[in-house]
Amino acid sequence: MNDGKKKEVEHFLDLVSGVQVPIIVVFGNHDYDADDVDGIKEMLLGNPSIKVLDGEYAEYELNGKKVGIGGAKGYGGGFAPHRIVSRGERATKSFVEEEDREVEKLKTALYQMENAAPDFKITLTHWAAFEETIEGEPKELYVILGSSRLGDAIEQVNPHLALSGHAHHGPRGIKKARGTVSACNIAYKVNEGKMSLFDFFSDGSVVLRHLESH
Ligand SMILES: [Fe+2]
Hey, what domains does the chain have and what are their CATH numbers? Predict the structure, then answer.
């Protein structure tokens, strides 16, 4: 969403009112613009098909397979070794404290996913977890585009697919992050407004398709 105001949430709910499949969301930074993320969550949960992952895990059965999704909003901080560190001014420390909170939330969700051991594991963050999904953005912005600490947590659980958004000028398609994790930037602008669809295969591979929007 764009400004965290109720009108936008209502518009989103209208758009998805006829959708018959489960809808899993994480908050984005703009959901915090109006300082009422709890209000947004309450509105979203008025639709029983919607699950908000704020450090939580959700699981669905699809074609006899368990599909699990662990997610959290995430935050910035940059990518090792070029990371912001919690020193000096209070504002800098506050920045890293938000990163700490989001990393912990994500770890909680991923811990649940590990225990549940679904057939397919998906991670979902709004902020980027891997540099490979934001390449093309100015390097100066990396610190406010994502955090390698999110990637550290995700790498540990070896997901089939790691989804993120936020970086509107990142690359399209599935990237092999850190040489092992299939990671994909699904930001609306990156995909030119086309819906990203993923096919999961029993050998563990994942293929991306795009649907034309109407
Ligand atoms: Fe964003």
Answer: 1-52 (no CATH), 55-211 (3.30.750)
